[in-house]
Every structure is written in structure tokens, then in C-alpha cells.
Design a protein that fits this description.
The complex is a heterodimer of chains A (545) and B (175).
Chain A lengths: L2 H13 L4 E6 L2 H4 L3 H14 L6 E6 L11 E4 L3 E3 L7 H6 L16 H4 L17 H6 L4 H9 L2 H11 L11 H10 L6 E6 L8 H8 L1 H15 L3 E6 L4 H16 L15 E6 L9 H8 L23 E5 H13 L1 H5 L9 E8 L5 E6 L4 H8 L9 E6 L5 E4 L9 H6 L8 E6 L4 H15 L5 H18 L5 H17 L3 H5 L2 H9 L1 H5 L21
Helix pairs in contact in A: 7-11, 7-14, 8-9, 8-11, 10-12, 11-14, 18-19, 19-20
Chain B lengths: L20 H12 L7 H12 L4 H11 L3 H10 L11 E6 L2 H5 L2 H12 L5 E2 L5 E6 L11 E3 L2 E3 L4 H9 L8
Parallel strand pairs in B: 1-3
Antiparallel strand pairs in B: 1-4, 2-3, 4-5
Helix pairs in contact in B: 1-2, 2-3, 3-4, 6-7
The chains are: A alpha/beta (545), B alpha+beta (175).
Chain lengths: 545, 175
């Protein structure tokens, strides 16, 4: 494909636009509540009304407000209908001809929508994820073209470095620095890996990005491959995301057919191939060295670093590994400039972050907000607070590696450093709200059970430590533990944190440590007095024989 | 091997094809991977898709096809939760136990289903009708608590709605 063809597709797509656009969410959330049937019913209703020349019905990715799905947007007049049933299709089409409908509308002026700042999700709910033309019509692959035609690999890296983008998988390592390290190596073979093994329970950001806009991830990976000098890429997706896998497969096939993947991309000397690797249900494979072992067809067990993947990664070659959301940020940075991106967010955390807001809030779904936004704005304004009049007690971020932030710290800005200071982490973006009915000791036990089951068993602190910590938490919950057990638990936390091989073990104690820090009283009320008495003081005279 | 398995051991024909076409399909798949040993996980996925689960004979067949030691194949198959070494029930019911589902009552759903089926999560009813499983997180947190009945995700479940859904599957008196 050459530039002229790219622009021609863009032109053709834009010319084919019809006056009215009905978009139906076909991401996993809405699909599970008859989203597909709603779309088909709308197709039929438009045909029946004879409006097919004026109205386009398009299946799109996530429309964000998952709890009210299936969602349908009609534009104009710009109305979002919620909980749409297939039987409602005729009345929705009728509204275009002056009719009325009883289907409930979502309030688009609610902070849930108005406080969002879509960068990664800019195409979500707009492009058809199964048509490359739809992505191209929304400026897709222009960033790749810009990189290949006008920038040297070093200039691409400079641009990413200047933008201040940090890894969105959780740890927040500067992306530009990582790219530069891989670019510096001289190996003939290098790899780019997209980590889509979104294993944190309570997180569905990457799934939504892949289902809503798969080409954006491919474009980001291609730009990265060009920058670091790789010609082979892998996307490691978890098997639990069949829809995301299917859409990626379609996207890769289309990109190959259009010459946007494969040899001589956009008439340049740059070659890049991408293959999908499907995970098999092991949380530890989110850890980069374990993930690479899994791609190599082995047990997903981590190995010590260094050497880092940037020097010796997949098949022993230099490997760049980034998360889905990180790659999804790359095309807009190149298209709109590093300064624009760096202007969003805070001094040390630039850009936006996508969160999966769930748990005890009124509005659950996908949100993208600028870094530095107070947690309170997210859970109280956007999320609408706890339902049924209960009060928010804590917000859990970072999954099993993160912690619980108590309600009194809700004014904390959401950025990498602030969350770390509170004993949690940014994590990949799962945000679970808990209310006063949730027992924090049980929450800690829940995560410990998770880590215990998912420990790969390679290093002893994690393998045995998580079992012991889980036992202690169960004992505390059963009201059989004493203050000594709590001390043992704290010692174990310290030991497992400091001596485990990989991130799984090193962060496994975090949920316990953070709940102990802010909700210690909940542990203490469960403790029993010591069952044994200290020996009587020596002063007591021995009874006469 | 589960003694109550209704099917005969699926891998019994390894090495000397019994006429079961599925082995042929798997063999072609292995050849298409150019017998690359790093394709092991893909091959296991394919085998499970064809046979429903991976028994010892099937694992031998794969080891032979990829020229890998059986210990390596067995080690990988047992490492990943997704691979099943025992036959699954005619129906599967997967209760999501992700954080969002957990705080919204997934545990009560599991408890109710365990009671109704008479098996614990991770097990299959003795008549082979239903496998009751839990998942780490299916990523449908906006719909919590979610349950997957035979691949179809159902949102906002309660112990009552889950039991109603399971009723038709358990008519043969299991549990």
C-alpha cells in the first residue's frame, strides 16, 4: 500500500458516510446481554423503514457505561440509549422519523462522560473494529506512515521520550528509555512483544482496547518495531478473551492484505510480522520473563533479572515488551506531537490512564482520565458513589499486587508516585470500590488465595510463604488467632516481599500490608487473647511439699 | 483417568491411528507448525479443542509429534489452568471470582451451586452432565457478578438465578 491508497480509502470511507449513524456496542460486556441481537434487529428495522440510504448501523467497540448495556448511540441527535432490547429496535428507528421511544437514555452530561479524556479510547465506540477501512478513516496508520517516511528510528524514540510516556502495565517504567535500550543492542534479530495477558482480577481495560480498536495496538507495535529494529512481534493474549483474540486475528489478516504488516510496509524497507500467542490461564505469565518462557512453549516460570529482556529476552534475543495500553498511546503521540501528550497529566505522570471502574459504585464501566485527577472525582463524581445509600470504605487499585486506599485518602491524585506512597500501585488500571459492608481482612485473604494459587512454585518464599500467609489470614477470620499470629503474618509479609524471585511474590503481601496499615482495627477486633498465661513470677512461694 | 468417564481414553490410538480423524487433524496441525518445539502450547490448545481434554495417551502423541520428552509436555500441560486432564461435563458453568464479582457475592453463588450439584468447584458431577468451575476474572467486571453458562456470559447473577439456569442441566438427579 502507498500513501495515495491510504488517503483514497480515507476519502472513500468519509464520502460513504450517511446522515445518521447508529452505533451498537459489540464489546464483551454488551455482547453478553444480547448486544449482537440488538444490532441485527436494528439492521432489520432500518431496512423495514426503508432508511438504509440515510442510516448506517455500525457495530463498534466499548461505549463505556458497561453496567447499563446493551448500549446504542444514535447520532444525530447524539443520544445514548441504555438497556436496549432487540424488540426496541423499531421504536429507536422510529425516533428518526418523529416517533418516540420508551427506551431509557443515559445522561451524557453526567460526570461519568464529561470528565473523560479519550486518547487511548478516542476511537472506541466510533470505529468498526472488524474493518481496517474504518480505522483508516479515523486517521489510522497515519502515525506509522509519518514515522516510516519522515522520522529516523532515533527520532521516533526521542519523540516517545519527550512525551514522558511511562509503561501502563503497572510499574511505570519510562517507555522511551526502554525502547532506547533495545535499539542500542546490535543483534540481528530482535522482537517486540505486546503483553495482553491482563490477569489482574477486576481489570478489563486491555480487553476493551483490543476489542474496540485492535489496529491501534498493531500500529503502535509496528512503530515500536521500526524504532528498535525488530521484524517480528508477538501479542500474548489470555485465552479468557476469545472476542479480543478473534478481532486481533481479523485485524492482522486485514493489515497483511493491505500491506500494513509484512514486507516493505508502505513502500519502505521496513518489514514487520505479528503473530498471536494465546495464554493458557497462568497469572504469572503477566511477568515479562515468564511470558517469554510461555511464548517459547515452556512452563511460564520467571527467571532472575538481569539480564533484562532488552538485552536477552525471547529466544535469547533483545526484546521490547510493553503493555497493550502503552502501545495504544504511541500512534496519537506521533500524530499530535510529544508536547501535546506531555501537556496532559502531571509532572512525572504524563498523559491519561484507562481504568476499569467496578465494584460498589453506581456507574461501572470503562473510564479514561488525565493523570493527577483526584480519586474522589473518579469514584464519587464519575462513579456516582456507592449504591443503596451505603458509604465508600476503600478503593482497591493494582489487583493482587496493589493495595486498598481508604476513604479518607480519596483526595489523593491518581499518579504513579502518589499511589505508591499510600502502599498501593497504579497497576494496570483495575479500580474496585468497596463499601462499609466489605470486610478488609477477607479482601486481603481473597488476594492472598489468588497469589497462593497462582504462585508458579519456582522460588520458596512465594510458594510456601503465600500458603502460610493465607492460613494465618484464615485463622484470623475464624477468630482463632492471637496477637502473636499477627506478628508472624507481618514478619512473613516482610520476608516474602524482600526475597521472592519475581513481581508476583514481591508484591503478594501488598494487600495485607495496606489493609494492616489503614484497617488494622479490623484485624485486631478478630484477635483472641493469648490462650496461655506467662509463668507465675518467681516471687510466688512454692507450695510446701 | 477418571474411572467414570463416559468416553474411551482418547489417546489410546497414539502412534497407530485408530481411524479417529481427530488425530489426523492434530498431526496436520503439528506439521503446519513445522514441528517447532515452541509451538507446544498452540498444539495443546488445538488438541484440547479437538478432544475436549488431554489424557496421557494424547500427551504422548503430542510429545512424539513435536519430538519433545513426555515430561516436558506433561509439565507444560499441568502448569496451565486452562488445560484439562480429565473429561469435562456436557455443560460447564464458570462462576467468575474476580474482585468485582467477589465483593458482589460470587462466593454465595458458588456455595449455592456446590450444594445443588453435590460437587465442589473444579469438579464434574458423577453423571458427567455438569462441570462447575470458577474463573480468576473473565473481565466482565461491569456486569458483576457474572457467570458463564456454556460460553454465554450472564450478567448480575444471584444464587437464585444461577440455580434456575442450572435446573435444566441437572434433571437426571445429579446431586
Amino acid at each position: 500500500m502507498v500513501l495515495a491508497e491510504l488517503l483514497e480509502i480515507q476519502e472513500r470511507e468519509r464520502a460513504a458516510r450517511k446522515p445518521v449513524l447508529i452505533t451498537c456496542c459489540l464489546a464483551a460486556g454488551c455482547m453478553s446481554s444480547e448486544g449482537r441481537q440488538v444490532k441485527e434487529a436494528l439492521d432489520r428495522a432500518v431496512q423495514a423503514a426503508g432508511l438504509q440510504d440515510r442510516v448506517e448501523v455500525r457495530g463498534v467497540g466499548c461505549l463505556l457505561l458497561c453496567c447499563e448495556g446493551p448500549l446504542v448511540r444514535v447520532d444525530p441527535p447524539g443520544v445514548l440509549y441504555q438497556k436496549v432490547r432487540p424488540a426496541d429496535a423499531a421504536s429507536l428507528v422510529d425516533t428518526l422519523q418523529g416517533g418516540t421511544t420508551s427506551v431509557a437514555r443515559a445522561d451524557l452530561n453526567h460526570p461519568f462522560f464529561t470528565r473523560q479524556m479519550p486518547v487511548v479510547l478516542e476511537n472506541s465506540g466510533r470505529v468498526d473494529p472488524e474493518r481496517i477501512e474504518s480505522y483508516i478513516a479515523h486517521d489510522g496508520y497515519l502515525a506509522l506512515r509519518h514515522a516510516l517516511r519522515e522520522l529516523s528510528p532515533a527520532e521516533v524514540i526521542t519523540e516517545i521520550t519527550k512525551s514522558g510516556l511511562r509503561g501502563r502495565g503497572g510499574a511505570g517504567y519510562p517507555t522511551g528509555l526502554k525502547w532506547a535500550t533495545v535499539a542500542k543492542t546490535t543483534s540481528a534479530r530482535k522482537y517486540v512483544i505486546c503483553n495482553a495477558d491482563e490477569g489482574d482480577p477486576g481489570a478489563f481495560m486491555d480487553r476493551s482496547v483490543l476489542e474496540s480498536d485492535p489496529h491501534r495496538v498493531l500500529e503502535g507495535m509496528s512503530i515500536a518495531a521500526y524504532a528498535v529494529g525488530a521484524d517480528q512481534g508477538y501479542i500474548y493474549v489470555r485465552a479468557e478473551y476469545p472476542l479480543a483474540i478473534a478481532r486481533l486475528q481479523v485485524a492482522i489478516r486485514q493489515a497483511r492484505q493491505s500491506g500494513l504488516l509484512g514486507p516493505n510496509i508502505l513502500e519502505s524497507p521496513f518489514h514487520f510480522h505479528v503473530d498471536i500467542r494465546i495464554g493458557a490461564g497462568a497469572f504469572v505469565c503477566g511477568e515479562e520473563t515468564a511470558l517469554m518462557a510461555s511464548i517459547e512453549g515452556r512452563r511460564g516460570q520467571p527467571r532472575p533479572r538481569p539480564p533484562y529482556p532488552a538485552e536477552s529476552g525471547l529466544f535469547g534475543q533483545p526484546t521490547l515488551i510493553n503493555n497493550v495500553e502503552t502501545f495504544a498511546n504511541v500512534p496519537p503521540i506521533l500524530r499530535r506531537g510529544a508536547e501535546w501528550f506531555a501537556g496532559i497529566g502531571t509532572e512525572r505522570s504524563r498523559g491519561t490512564k484507562v481504568f476499569a471502574l467496578a465494584g460498589k459504585v453506581r456507574h461501572t464501566g470503562l473510564i479514561e482520565v488525565p493523570m493527577g485527577i483526584p480519586l474522589r472525582t473518579i469514584v464519587e463524581d464519575m462513579g456516582g458513589g456507592a449504591p443503596d445509600g451505603s458509604r465508600i470504605k476503600a478503593v482497591q487499585t493494582g489487583g493482587p499486587s496493589g493495595g486498598c486506599i481508604p476513604a479518607e485518602h480519596l483526595d489523593t491524585p491518581v499518579d504513579y508516585e502518589s499511589l505508591t506512597r499510600l502502599g498501593s500501585i497504579m497497576g494496570s488500571g483495575g479500580m474496585i470500590v468497596m463499601d462499609e459492608r466489605d470486610n478488609m481482612v477477607d479482601v486481603a485473604r481473597f488476594f492472598m488465595e489468588f497469589c497462593m494459587d497462582e504462585s508458579c512454585g519456582k522460588c520458596i518464599p512465594c510458594r510456601a510463604g503465600t500458603v502460610q500467609m493465607h492460613e494465618l489470614l484464615k485463622k484470623i477470620l475464624a477468630r482463632r488467632a492471637t496477637a502473636r499470629d499477627l506478628t508472624t503474618l507481618e514478619q512473613l509479609c516482610d520476608l516474602v516481599k524482600n526475597t521472592s524471585l519475581c513481581g508476583l511474590g514481591q508484591t503478594a503481601p501488598n494487600p495485607v500490608l495496606s489493609t494492616l496499615r489503614f484497617f488494622r482495627h479490623e484485624y485486631q477486633t478478630l484477635l483472641q487473647p493469648e490462650p496461655w498465661k506467662p509463668p507465675a513470677p518467681a516471687a510466688a512461694p512454692a507450695p510446701p511439699a | 483417568m477418571n474411572a467414570t468417564a463416559p468416553a474411551k481414553p482418547v489417546g489410546s490410538a497414539a502412534g497407530h491411528p485408530s481411524g479417529d480423524k481427530r488425530f489426523k487433524i492434530l498431526e496436520v496441525f503439528i506439521k503446519r507448525q513445522q514441528q517447532r518445539q515452541d509451538a507446544l502450547i498452540e498444539v495443546l490448545h488445538k488438541a484440547q479443542e479437538l478432544f475436549g481434554y488431554l489424557d496421557d495417551g494424547l500427551l504422548w502423541f503430542i510429545a512424539h509429534g513435536l519430538r519433545l520428552p513426555p515430561s516436558r509436555v506433561y509439565g507444560v500441560a499441568t502448569f496451565y489452568h486452562f488445560f484439562k486432564l480429565k473429561p469435562q461435563g456436557a455443560h460447564t458453568c464458570v462462576v467468575c471470582m474476580g474482585t468485582a464479582c467477589y465483593v458482589k457475592g460470587a462466593r454465595q453463588i458458588v456455595a449455592a451451586l456446590e450444594q445443588a450439584t453435590g460437587v465442589r468447584s473444579g469438579e464434574t458431577t458423577p453423571d458427567g452432565r455438569v462441570s462447575l468451575l470458577t474463573s480468576r476474572c473473565i473481565g466482565a467486571c461491569g456486569l458483576a457478578p457474572a457467570v458463564v453458562y456454556d460460553e454465554a456470559v450472564a450478567a448480575h447473577q444471584t444464587p437464585e438465578s444461577a440455580l434456575a439456569r442450572m435446573k435444566g442441566w441437572l434433571t437426571n438427579g445429579a446431586g
